[in-house]
From TrEMBL:
<dbReference type="GO" id="GO:0170057">
    <property type="term" value="F:RNA ligase (GTP) activity"/>
</dbReference>
<feature type="binding site">
    <location>
        <position position="435"/>
    </location>
    <ligand>
        <name>GMP</name>
    </ligand>
</feature>
<dbReference type="InterPro" id="IPR036025">
    <property type="entry name" value="RtcB-like_sf"/>
</dbReference>
<feature type="binding site">
    <location>
        <position position="309"/>
    </location>
    <ligand>
        <name>Mn(2+) 2</name>
    </ligand>
</feature>
<protein>
    <recommendedName>
        <fullName>3'-phosphate/5'-hydroxy nucleic acid ligase</fullName>
        <ecNumber>6.5.1.8</ecNumber>
    </recommendedName>
</protein>
<keyword id="KW-0547">Nucleotide-binding</keyword>
<keyword id="KW-0436">Ligase</keyword>
<feature type="binding site">
    <location>
        <position position="348"/>
    </location>
    <ligand>
        <name>GMP</name>
    </ligand>
</feature>
<feature type="binding site">
    <location>
        <begin position="198"/>
        <end position="202"/>
    </location>
    <ligand>
        <name>GMP</name>
    </ligand>
</feature>
<feature type="binding site">
    <location>
        <begin position="309"/>
        <end position="310"/>
    </location>
    <ligand>
        <name>GMP</name>
    </ligand>
</feature>
<keyword id="KW-0464">Manganese</keyword>
<feature type="binding site">
    <location>
        <position position="113"/>
    </location>
    <ligand>
        <name>Mn(2+) 1</name>
    </ligand>
</feature>
<feature type="binding site">
    <location>
        <position position="217"/>
    </location>
    <ligand>
        <name>Mn(2+) 2</name>
    </ligand>
</feature>
<feature type="binding site">
    <location>
        <begin position="341"/>
        <end position="344"/>
    </location>
    <ligand>
        <name>GMP</name>
    </ligand>
</feature>
<feature type="binding site">
    <location>
        <begin position="365"/>
        <end position="368"/>
    </location>
    <ligand>
        <name>GMP</name>
    </ligand>
</feature>
<dbReference type="GO" id="GO:0005525">
    <property type="term" value="F:GTP binding"/>
</dbReference>
<dbReference type="InterPro" id="IPR001233">
    <property type="entry name" value="RtcB"/>
</dbReference>
Amino acid sequence: MLVNLIGIQWKVKGEVGRRMATLIHSAYSSFRCASRRSYSHLPQIISTKGVPIHLYSDEIETQALAQVVLLAESPLPVDYVSVMPDAHLGKGVTIGTVFASEKYIYPNAVGVDIGCGMAAVPIHGLYKKQLTDSQKVEIFHRLKDLIPTGFAKHNKMLPETKEVLEKITEELKPTDYVMGQLLQSNVTNQLGTLGGGNHFLEIVHCDKDNLVWSLLHSGSRNIGNRVAQHYDQMAKSMLQKQGVDTRTLNGINYMPIDSEEGQNYLRDMEWSQQYAFQNRKAMQRIMLQIIADVTKCEADMSRSVNIHHNYCSCEDCNGRKLYVTRKGATSAAKGQMGIIPGSMGSGSYITRGKGNPLSWNSSSHGAGRRMSRIKAHSNISQKDFEVSMKGIVCDTHESVRDEAPQAYKNLTLVMEQQSSLTEIVHRLMPLINVKGFEKKLPKKYRN
């Protein structure tokens, strides 16, 4: 359920409910005069027993807010925790959370898809009206043929994989753990693959000039997952050896940044981030080659954008060296170009950051889910899903229904709520969408 912070009634039981009641009443009292469509009152400041929360929204799921409070009251953050308008419940940490730490690192805050992010580039001289229906269908099928999706991988390494992995390994010097993973074909043959869930390949057009762009969303694939789980267990073990009852931490397993284990995590995390970056570059190369083959038009690489939204980086914060963790959030430093996607039918934005310190120079990473995957399969009919995707060349298999536009928040509203964090440069609307999915609907999604 959603808790509305400017007056809609809500109901939560137990101790969590009592805590949330105090916090929400405080937020409501401070901003009860705010206009529904004016967001100058954001961020809402919510006090906790730890650092305050900066919330860039008028509503948030009860459980998601409870997650943020647990983080704010842990030893990890300094100054404040910022929560983006696309925030929703996540594993361990609410997606859309940004915080800075001086002493500790929290592997599960970065999460299992280390370096997940977006890449976009315009196609020089190619406009929406020039793409025929047959060309769109051809591009769609060639994308599906040449870029593995879901759990699939390439049968052999891409031509650039060996050189790319050698380069980032030499530069970042990951630990023996990552070096051992590199011996497995999952790591080498997954470079240049999409994955599943909310990852996608799209051909889009700018709503102003109709220029066509290539757009994609993906991360570090299986290696990022392995690194995350490896260090989460290591952090938990370290805390237990110190006599900490980790059952009381609600999964917030952290380690000192200056410890050997903390430094090793940073090395392997940075390596995984670069793997994700190169994974997007490899897929983008394939996409652009397909577009060039079909349309004879080339990309304008001078305008390309490739960014993370699940990562941690050491940043200068008003003269302090702090480690800023963005869990489902995009860096929006002043003048920095970004990409904020919506759902598979609602379009995306190319943005320019405003460098707002109240959000740790960050903005949302997307629209954010408004219903879980299980609820989406239960509440969204197949017919409604297909209608919502009319005019877009895509798969509307029932297994993709949890990614329907109806499962996501209103991206226009999300952008309005973060107008103090980032500005819109272009709006991109989908023409072709490719997602990874299993053709047999998992049992948990069946009615």
